[in-house]
Write the structure tokens for this entry.
Amino acid sequence: MRAVIDCDEVLHVARLARLQLDEDELEPMARELSAVLDHIATIAQLDLEDVAPTTHVVADAMPTHPKLRADEPRDSLPREVALAQAPAVSEGGFSVPSPQA
Amino acid sequence: MSETEIIGLSAARAAAEIAAGELAAEELFEAYRARAAGHIAGEGLNCFTWVAQEGTGEGTAAPLGGVPLAVKDLFCTEGVPSQSGSKILEGYLPPYTATAVSRLTSAGASLLGKTNQDEFAMGSSNENSAYGPVLNPWNRARVPGGSSGGSAAAVAAGLAPWALGTDTGGSIRQPAALCGIVGLKPTYGAVSRYGMIAFASSLDQAGPLARDVTDAALMLHYLVGRDERDATSLGFPEEIALPSAERLDGIRLGVPKELTAGSSGADGEGIEAGVLDAFEAALGRAEELGAEIVRSVQLPHAPHALAAYYVLAPAEASSNLARFDGVRYGLRAEDPKDLLDMYTRTRHEGFGAEVKRRIMLGTYALSSGYYDAYYGRAQRVRTKIAEDFRAAFAEVDFIVTPTAPTVAFELGEKTGDPLQMYLNDYCTVPMSLAGIPAISIPCGLSEGLPVGLQIAGPAFSENRLLDAAHALERELGFDGSQARL
């Protein structure tokens, strides 16, 4: 497991996360993430060969898994309520800039 | 009744006085409203981000009869600002109310205000709020803990009788400890998450911050229940009762060495001496009540809990916070040149430093090539941690630890080192990963500041847990009145 992340990798991850980072944020971010990743690296030493990953930590251990509700269509928010907090609206929908300038 | 007498009433006591006709709900509400209004927008302790003009529960015959309730900002409240401590949600007015809140208001609680918090509940000091830090009422140069710091400080300072908080890795228990009040994180799934602005969905749980164990039980009584709008909610197999135990005869309290080791020096790990002293003194009192202290109990994977947590919680956060993109609600950057520019600049301007850090960490852990090494392994560690607790509970009734490794620290003391800040959660994160209930009660002072005792039990053991906490609370006789302004 790699424990050190450099500025190039920080930029790559920021792009994946749709986060803009200023030039002066890169080095501190790389340093802080590296410190945390270094701490996290301790779990690489554990033998977890036959261990199942957790899904719902409480329900996983219950003898009968609770049932989910039936997946049936139902009323949701009225359109005007859903749009009420939007920064920009047009023609009854959310308005966004063009994908390509 | 004088204002001092009114403010001195617990929530349960106030509800009883109202029911008996000894106190008017309007009078109670106004006493708290007037006090809360002095601690908003950078004033006073800065506990609140919004305070109601008037109560909503008056005149109802409902059991909570108009008792005011402070609610952490991340709970959606219809038509009332719900900003989760973030600039990206400044002024956001949700179109619906969180189930946890509506269950309490349906029982007669009256929304008093929304409380300040770390942005998106990411923090252990309440210094990550876009609305400024909350101050600790015991010492205003110190942090109240986090992320439910506004809720904890408001209750400790007598600005609210009780408050709703959320706990992902310790965010109810740790601020309760640092402010000298009671905080309970319920079993994962006991309380609906519907309408809570999500941080880490597999860990987030709502719960009470209260002045005493009885109030915590009273709030929990109304909070629990299955909600079909939260697919992970399980409800609760029995009614939550008000605690009555006065003894701990036959109760076995496990003290895991993994979570109770003393601080060894500059690395920031381990429990500081004053906290350990208060913890050990509390164990002595528990023995006097008939409890047996069991020091052989082990949680071998607990030392890895923090590492697993700081994979899982940021991973889930990076996914949950993808919704803040300037499209449907909240902030949108000015004059975006195209769609991608709108996304990246909106998130750049709207998120604070810690939120960005966790989104980065989570995105990294989930990115191609790293998923198995980080997220996959962390979910397996989580399974082992839950197994450790189940094995321990075959030997003991409860696990006890200090709630936090230190007392309230100074504002700014740990902001420069994220890992040091994360170590605040060392004793609380294992229970979060295991999904089990845990309560923090004040057990004494160190350096004149409150120390919290954490008691954790198996899933759905809340009634037994509250009883044990009640017996200990009586014996310890902690007096928090000096923090009340």
